[in-house]
């Protein structure tokens, strides 16, 4: 009942044969990119300047927050008196 049914005639061999694949194409050399020293220095100086500006903004924000807390506590003390 559950046995597989096999064909009476064997299957024919495949009609095509495997041909050797084409050799890989020759790679062209990648062109060299020359980076001048001035460009490297410019990028480094730009990074240092941007980092310094970010640090200045962060310090300013912290000082404004501290000043706000101090002023708030001073105003609260005046209201209670």
The major beta sheet can be summarized as: none
Q: pLDDT average, as an integer? A: 84
% residues in beta strands? under 5%
Low-confidence stretches: none
What's the N-to-C terminus distance?
101 Å
Could you tell me the number of beta strands?
0
Outline of this structure?
By secondary structure, the chain is mostly helical.
Summarize the structure in words.
This protein has one helix and no strands. By secondary structure, the chain is mainly α. 0% of the residues are buried.
What is the topological layout?
Layout: H1 37-80
Observed structural traits:
81 residues, mainly alpha, elongated
